[in-house]
Design brief:
Helix content: under 10%
InterPro entries: CD80_C2-set (IPR013162), Ig-like_dom (IPR007110), Ig-like_dom_sf (IPR036179), Ig-like_fold (IPR013783), T-cell_Activation_Regulation (IPR051713)
Order of helices and strands: EEEEEEEEEEEEEEEEEEE
Strand content: over 45%
Radius of gyration: 26 Å
Membrane topology: Single-pass type I membrane protein
CATH superfamily of the largest domain: Immunoglobulins
Structural class: mainly beta
Organism: Steatornis caripensis
Shape: elongated
Number of strands: 19
Number of helices: 0
CATH topology of the largest domain: Immunoglobulin-like
Domain Ig-like: 1-98, 111-191
Main location: membrane
Length: 209
Amino acid sequence: KSFLNHTANLSCYFPNYQKTDIKDLRVFWQKGAVEVVHEVYYGQEKHDNLSPKYINRTKMDMDKWTLQLLNARIVDEGQYTCIIQHRDKGSPKVIHTSECLLNIIANYSQPEIAWLHTGELKPNEYLNLSCSSSGGYPEPKQMTWLISHENKTRRLMRHMDVSQDAVTKLYNVTSKLNITVPTNTPTNISCLLHLGEQLGSLVSVPLGI
């Protein structure tokens, strides 16, 4: 995983037990079946075969056998393959391959609750709220509303509208809540954005009624 616009580290997992000289190896990384991302040709960096979008964006750490992909973008997501060939009696022979799956993460803004109506609130009328968060990646799982009063919390699931920016590929999400105004009891309303198992959740500032 790598954060958007940060450096992604893709490991080749090559142990090099025999301490083979880099001048006897051809190391190249490719994305998918056709795009060449980086190439070290018998000790020299070679740029002839690189896909244009990776030029000047990669560095190879030959001590750790790790490729650094600079300024990682959402379009860089995908499967990368590291291939190492050894110069064996003149004809190169593949001695190692490994694959690495890159996922990009962009942080969502803190969810924010907004009123969808104006005027005074009266008991048993309907309360219309929306909760929004923007600028994140990947697409979140769901948005949950939390209604808390008298030490009890109810969770309400509502439809989440999702839109994706055509250029940046980042997501914006909104959910709407329509409930009756609570009577005689101070109530806190929050919304929770679930980003997935490994990424956790974001919660809004509570709205007190």
